[in-house]
Every structure is written in structure tokens, then in C-alpha cells.
Amino acid sequence: MEVVTLLVVLWVVAPLWALISALNTQRRIGELEREVRQLRLRRVRPEAGASLPDPAEPAPTTKETLSGSAGELTQIPAEFAVGSHGPFEPAVTTETVKKADFGLGRWLTGFFSGPSAFARLGAVVLLVGVGLGLKYAADLGLLGLPLRLWGVVALGGALLVVGWRLRKVRAAYAAALMGTAFGVWYLTVFASLHFYGLLSTGRAFALLALLGGLLAALATVQRSQVLAVLGTLGGFLAPLLTSASSASGQANGVQLFAYYALLNVLALPLGVRFGWEGLPLLGFAATFGLATVWGVLAYRPDSFAVAEPFLLLFFLMYALLPLARARFGETGPRGTAVALLFATPVVFLSLQAALTGGAREVMALSCLGLSAFYTLLATRTASWRIAHAAIAVGALTLGLPFALGVNLTPAAWALEGAALAWYAARKRSRAWSIWSAVVQAGAGLAVLWKALGEGPPIALEGWGLAALLAMAALLSARFVQSVWPPLARAFAGAGMVWWLLGGAYGLFLEHAGRPALALLVVYVALSAVVLCVLGARWSLSALRAAAYLPLPVAIVAQLAWLGTSPLTDLGWLSVPVAVAAQLTVLEWRALAFPARFRVLFHALAFWFVLLILAWSAASAWGGVWALCAWGAVPALGVALIVTEGRRVPWIRRDFAAFVRLGVLPVLGSILVWFWLASGHSGRMGSWPVPLLNPLDLALAGSWYVAWRVLTRSGTRRTPGLSEALEPVWSAQRPHTFAWLLSVSALLGLSTAALRGVHFLGGVPWEAAALLGSGAVQTTLSLVWTGLGMGAMWWARRAGQSDERSARGVWLVGAVLLVAVTVKLFLVDLAGSSALARIVSFVSVGALLLLIGYLSPAPPRDRTSR
Questions:
Q1: CA atoms in the 13 A half-sphere facing the CB of 599
Q2: Could you report the per-residue pLDDT of 175-211, keeping only the tens digit for each?
Q3: Could you tell me which residues belong to the region Disordered (predicted)?
Q4: How far is it, in rounded angstroms, from Cα 233 to Cα 825?
């Protein structure tokens, strides 16, 4: 023990002192050089309007003694004296020095630097040496007990006398000597009580009180922190140097803690009265450090009755320091006072947990009692109110897991976080807002840990906890909206996430498969409406994001079950609820959604409804009816929108944008379906009627709807439709859609003729069989000739109003007739039967003659006409 202590002093304290001393010396030299340069500049160029002191009057010389952290008595030269700088910089008073912010690092730097640094270091080393010498002499029985003790007392007296005589000449050095003297005497009294048993407890404590009073008086008279620190340090080192900490038993514990309590009672008033930060720091470190050592080496469960009262006593001593500081004019937390303020409850709870073995009930009462105590302090100290309140909240937060257990702790933390957010709004404090976020984040982590680490709870518990966290977060967002809007948005987002995750978690625990997805869609849709209403009422724009959830969630849920009908297994409930919720939140005026998003989601709702209806019809009917449903249902939807859609307010408001964004993509899908479905035979056992079977009717109807919407001639009967499509037409070549629909019509009529031959003539629906059939070739020739004749006849009638378009149509009809003629000679003449060839040539020839008479080629312009 002796060797270890000596090595610590020599190899740790000494190098640390040397380094700090060097750095402090360099800093002080730099400060002096800067101050000298400033004085020279001011004397050469005084500030405008500044009055110089009268040269006839000598500058006053200040000889005050500044006893700072190092406690040195420094004679200040006249040119650097307080008040000698005139109006150019404020005077530094002793009150300012007293209230300066002495941090721990600054205090250590000052203590182990300066001209008397070696004296202070020597005092510490001497105290250690005396303690080790007493222990060594006692172990070997050297010099006799009276001689040893009186010798140490005499050494202390000599140090005190020499220090007293040097107090005016070398104040700092004298303070180190006198402090060492008191340390030696503290060591002697404690050794006589605890180690040798020469003094009774009453006499020993009376001597200690006498020494403490004398030390306080000398330190007060000389305003010397060094004297007080060194003397008190000797008292605190006495148990360690005499190995008293290793003694066990109740009596030893009582004497040890009572001794330290007396030292604190003597030292703390000096530190508070004069603002000496070294004394509270020394007392805190020594008291709780020795308590920890004693607990590790000597504590037994039956010693709880001894340790607990002293732990409470020491805690109260340092917890009540802010009250004492406030009585002496301290304005608020600063320097080491803040460190002691927050370290005291932390150390107390740590030692309390060690003494009680972490018992839940005891720790819960300790935390709750600590919270109540600091709440009371917060009401008594205005300058320390925020710090005390923060500790009270922290103690309550730590106590909730002990009091409520794992299951209820997240709920309690969530409610506490909401209460803190309310308090932050009342005080308009961002600090309390951050603390609220931290507490609620802890609640969320606790819920996740419980769900992932201990297995899934029952559905109501899982949803209930998540819902409670969500409501706490949403209320917190409402409270801190005016204090810190970014944090309010984060609270709102967290509330939405917890609400939706909790619902999904509970639903998938209770249900499975398609019903779970359908119920999830309903839950999300209704939640979106509620969240958007809250966002509008509470002016929380972040909650508006919930409006974009119903339809995407419904679409994903439907795509997850492609193999079944979308309206089965509660799909009949989820689809209309999702669509209604989506349209409701989009049309909520208070939310003021951007127009582009509103039109996009209206179009998405339109697509989704058409998809569900077509999918349901196809699943219900099957066969050719299913194929027809995929074209007929979208065509009917488009027809309904373009003819009756303007009666709906939200379509009428954005009709042009909705047609371009919502209707045109559907028409594109209809044309794709038209080309694909045209290749189907359309055979139905109960309805083999050409041109009147469901497939031909669906193809004709879908083509007609496309022509009515996409062409200029078709939109003339629909108000507002041509204006909506004008930008689309302007971006294309003229009559692009008309030519596309003409080619589609040719394809549709040709395949309809093939299906008629297939039904009536019994030709198999195969490419080779159809191409090799004379009846098919004759039918195609007649159909194409009829189409060409119809085009040319229409061009003849429309030529007076639109000559350019009419000539283009007439040329198309002519090209079609030429193609028929070429087909007659290359295909029909070579591959058809005699009767089929005769019918084809006679029929086509007669039609050509008729066309030549009724529809000659229109003129290129009016001159040629």
C-alpha cells in the first residue's frame, strides 16, 4: 500500500504538475505581452473623446491581494493596477474575481503552477510521507507510541509557526506550510482514534472540530484557498494512509463516515462563502471515492443500516450546495458547480444500487424520492430551477422501469415525454423539447426491444402500446409546433409511423392472408382521414403525408393476390373504403393539396377503380366474357367520364388535366387490348353469331369510344373535350390518331370477317387453314373493297368542306382497292376454287365500276375543280 501510494505521487502527480506549470507559464507570458502592447497603443493613440489623466497627479497604486485559485499574494505594479487604466477598459474588482468561472481544469492549473507550485506539491508529498511513516513505525514498533505521535504534532506546530511568520513576505508559500500543518494534525488525530485507539470518539471529534475551526479562521483571515485545501486534504488522506479503509465491521464504518462527515461540514461552508471551488471538489471526490472503496472491501449486507444513513447525509450535503450558493449571491450554475450538481444524483443512485443489490422496489422508491426532492429544490432556487427540474425528470424516467416493470415502462415514458413537450411549450424552451424527444425515443426503443426480444405480445397489447406512443408523439408535435417546427414535424412523422405500425402488427397477429391485407387497407384509409383532419385542425403540415397512403397501400395489397378475385375475402370492403378515403382527403379544403398531386391521385383512383371492376368481371365470367371485360369496362369508364364527368365537382375543376393524365393512358391500354383481342376466335358454344358475339361488340364499342375521344370530329359533340386535347393534338402530326384508328378499324373488321367464316363455314381458327380457304379470301376481298368504297364515297361527300382531308381519305380507299385487285390476281386466282374465283372477280369488278361512277378522284384544288 505504501509503495503504491508513493509511486502514484511520484510518477503521476509530479509529471502532471510539470506539464501544467509549463503551459500556464507560457499562457501568462502571452497575456502579459498582449496587455503591454495594448497599453502602448493606447498611450500613442488614445480613443476619440477619451480624457487622459492629469499628469500632475500620480497614478494610484493598487496593492490588493488577489487570492484566486492558487491563493497567491501578488503585488500588482502601478501601471497594471486596478483602476490605473482610466476610461479605456473597465476596472477588475475583487467581486469580479470572486464570481469568475473557475472550472476544474482552471483550478488544477492554478493550484499546480506559479511561484509556489513546488511548495504545494511538496506539501502533498509530505502529507503522504508522514502518513506512511506513522504506519511503518507502528508496524515495526519504532520510537514508541508517544514519541511518534508527539513528534508528528511538533512537526505540524513547526510548519504552522514558520508559515505564520512568512505570511506577509511569502503568502503563497506560507499558506502551503500552514495547510500542511493542519493536514498533519488531522492525520495524527485520526490515527490516535482509529488506528491506535488512544482517543475516545467524543474527544477525537472534539479535537477535529477544534482543528477545523482554527483552519477555517486562518483561511478566512488570509483569504487563502491553498491553506484550506491542503489542510482539508490531509484530513481526507488520513484513512487511506493509515489503511483504515480495509478495516471491516460496523464500528469502523461508523467512525470512518462520521469523520468524513465532520470534514465536509468544516470544509463546505468555506468553499461556499468565498467561492473556492477546490474545497467542494476535494470533499466530493474524497467522500464518495472512499465510500466506494469501503463498499468494495468491507461492505456486507448487515452493514446496510450503517452505510445508508451516511450515504443520504453525504448526498444532502452536496445536493443542497446550490441553496447555500444562492444565499451568497451566486446567480446560477457555473464551472465546477454544474459538474457537482449532476454528479451528485448519479453517484448517489450508483451507490444505492450497489448497497441494495439493484432491488426493484428500493430503487423505484429511491428514484421517485430523488425526483420529488429535486422538484422541491426547483421551486426554491430560481437560478438553478432548470437544472434541478432536469434532474427531477431524469430521476423519474429512471425510476419508472423499476416501479412499473418492462411492460408498462414504454407507456409511462411516452406519457412523460408528452408532458415534457407541454412544459416546453409553456416555457418556450427548446431544451425541454429535446428532452421530450429523448424520453419518447427511449419509449420506442423499449417497445421494439420487447417485441423483438421477448416474443410477440398479444394483439391488443402490441397495438395499444404503439397507439399510446403515437398519441404521445402527436400531442408533442402539437405542443412544440410554436417552439421548434422542425422537431414538431419529426414528432408528427413518428406518431404516424407508430400508429400505422401498431395497427399492422396487431392485425397480422390476429389474422392471416388476404383478410389481414384487406383489414390493413381499411385501417390505413381511416387512419389517413383522421390524421389529415388532425393536421388541418392543429396546423401540422407533416400529417398531410398520410393523404398519400390509402390508394398505394390498396394497390400493393391487391397486387399481392393476383390469382384471386379482388373483391373476395373482404376486398369488397377495402376497395371502396380506400377510394372514398383517398378522394375525401384530397378534397379536404383545409389541407390545400397542390393541384398536380391532386390530379395525379384522382387519375390513380380512376385507374384503380377500372382495374378492380375489369378484374372482378373477368374473374366472375371467364372465357370470352373475361376477355371482353378487360376492354369493355375501361371503355365504359372513359365514356362515362367524358360525357358525364363534368357533373362531378372535382373532375369539372381540373377536367382538362384529368383527361390528359387520367383518360389518355386508359385509351392507350384499350387500343393495346383491341389489337391483342382481335386475334381471338371469340367462339362461344351458346352464341355463335358473327358480328353480334360479345367479342365483336366489345371491340366495336371500345373503338367507337376511342374515336369519339381522340379525333377532332369525334370530340365536337362533347363540351370541353377538344380544348382539353388541343395540346396533345398540337404536339402530334395532323390526323395521327385518325390514321391509327383507321388501321385499327381495318384490323377489327378483317378479323370479324374471319370469325364469321370460322363460325359459319367451319374453317378452323388457325393461320394456315384461314389463309388457304377460298371463302376467307373472297370474304376479305369483299370486305376490303367495301371499306375502300366507303372511304371514297365519304371523301366525295366531305370534299366541299375539307378538301385536303377528303383527298387523303379518297387516296386511302384507292390504295385499299388496288391492294384488293393485286390480291385477286396473286392470291385468289392461284389458290381459290373456281366458284370462289368467279365470285371474287365479279363482285369486286362490279364494285369498282360503281365506285368509279359515284366517287371519282377529288380535285387537288378549286382551280382544277
A1: 16
A2: 777 777 777 787 777 777 766 777 777 787 787 778 7
A3: 47-68
A4: 125
Q: Note every long-range contact of 55-64, with CB atoms under 8 Å and residues 24 or more positions apart, other chains counting.
A: 59/84, 60/84, 64/94
* Residue-wise pLDDT tens digits, 439-487: 888 888 888 777 676 655 544 466 778 888 899 999 999 999 888 888 9
Coil vs helix vs strand at 835? helix
Amino acid at 830: A
Residue 175 CB contacts under 8 Å (≥ 6 apart), including other chains: 71, 116, 163, 167, 222, 224, 226, 227, 230
Q: Which residue has the cell 387519375?
A: 603
CA dist., res. 136 & res. 149, Å (int):
13
User: Phi/psi of residue 842, each to 5°?
Assistant: -65, -45
Tracing cell 495524527 back to the chain, one arrives at 188
Q: What are phi and psi of 725, to 5 degrees?
A: -95, -5
**Cell 491506535 belongs to residue:** 196
Show the cell assigned to 228. Answer: 484550506
Q: Grid coordinates in use for 66?
A: 488577489
Strands (E), 289-447: none
Question: The whole model's pTM is what?
Answer: 0.63
CB 579 within 8 A of CB 522: no
3-state secondary structure of 561: coil
Which distant-in-sequence residues (6+ apart) come within 8 Å of 348 by Cβ? 311, 315, 370
Give 294-334 as a DSSP string: HHHHH--GGGHHHHHHHHHHHHHHHHTHHHHHHHTT--S--
Give the separation between CA 490 and CA 430, rounded to whole angstroms: 14
Based on the number of CB atoms within 10 Å of its own CB, is 358 exposed (0-12), middle (13-18) or buried (19 or more)?
Answer: exposed
CB burial of residue 701 (10 Å; 0-12, 13-18, 19+): middle
Collapsing DSSP states into helix, strand and coil, what is residue 263?
A: helix
d(CA 196, CA 184): 16
pLDDT in tens, 430-452: 888 888 888 888 888 888 777 67
Q: Catalogue the long-range contacts made by 132-137 (C-beta closer than 8 Å, 24 or more residues apart).
A: 132/2, 132/5, 132/6, 132/241, 134/187, 134/188, 134/191, 134/195, 134/241, 134/242, 135/2, 135/241, 135/242, 135/243, 136/2
Place of cell 407507456: 411
DSSP code for 718: S
Residue 574 CA, distance from chain mean position:
32
